């Protein structure tokens, strides 16, 4: 819980009463490996803050292939924010790839925080901006680099993930086959 408070305080100042109000709105959610935090075809129920574990964002392309487009590790927000805010059906999945523990906020509670805590909207805006910039920073090299360089960048951005995520998910994220990933890993050892 302290990790969550420390995280949000990076983006603005809140007093003890405000952080207590926010924490009173939070609920704990535990996911088993392969459980979904959010599913395509359903309206996202929560904004979450990942206390333990790793999740991935994925979708199915027009060939029916599962594509992983991002990972989120501990001490970060997890949300299909645009669809959560609009309360519309999601087009992708958010899946636990390890056992996870999250603090979650329902739409009603999230809105109540925004309407009650002075300065929360500015903090929320900065958090969303930070998450988007991180995602862009991590994804941009994947467009122009060769597979080996993409893998090395992946290790740099997600040093703790290489032994926690299935190789099939990592390969999908990098846009290569699992066999190519195995070959790359073998060549750089």
Automatic annotation (TrEMBL):
Signal peptide: none
Protein name per Swiss-Prot or TrEMBL: Crp/Fnr family transcriptional regulator
Lineage: Bacteria, Pseudomonadati, Bacteroidota, Sphingobacteriia, Sphingobacteriales
Top-level taxon of the source organism: Bacteria
Ranges for domain Cyclic nucleotide-binding: 30-113
């Amino acid at each position: 819980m302290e990790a969550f408070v420390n995280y949000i305080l990076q983006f603005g100042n809140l007093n003890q009463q405000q952080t207590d109000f926010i924490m009173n709105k939070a609920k704990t959610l535990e996911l088993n490996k392969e459980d979904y935090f959010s599913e395509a075809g359903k309206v996202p129920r929560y904004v979450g803050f990942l206390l333990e574990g790793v999740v991935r964002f994925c979708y199915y392309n027009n060939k029916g292939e599962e594509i992983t487009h991002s990972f989120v590790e501990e001490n970060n927000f997890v949300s299909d924010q645009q669809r959560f805010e609009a309360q519309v059906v999601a087009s992708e999945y958010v899946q636990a790839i390890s056992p996870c523990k999250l603090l979650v906020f329902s739409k009603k509670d999230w809105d109540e925080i925004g309407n009650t805590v002075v300065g929360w909207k500015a903090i929320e805006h900065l958090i969303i901006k930070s998450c988007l910039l991180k995602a862009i920073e991590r994804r941009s090299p994947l467009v122009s680099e060769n597979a080996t360089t993409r893998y090395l960048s992946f290790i740099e951005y997600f040093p703790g993930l290489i032994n926690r995520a299935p190789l099939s998910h990592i390969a999908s994220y990098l846009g290569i086959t699992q066999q190519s990933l195995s070959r790359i890993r073998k060549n750089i050892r």
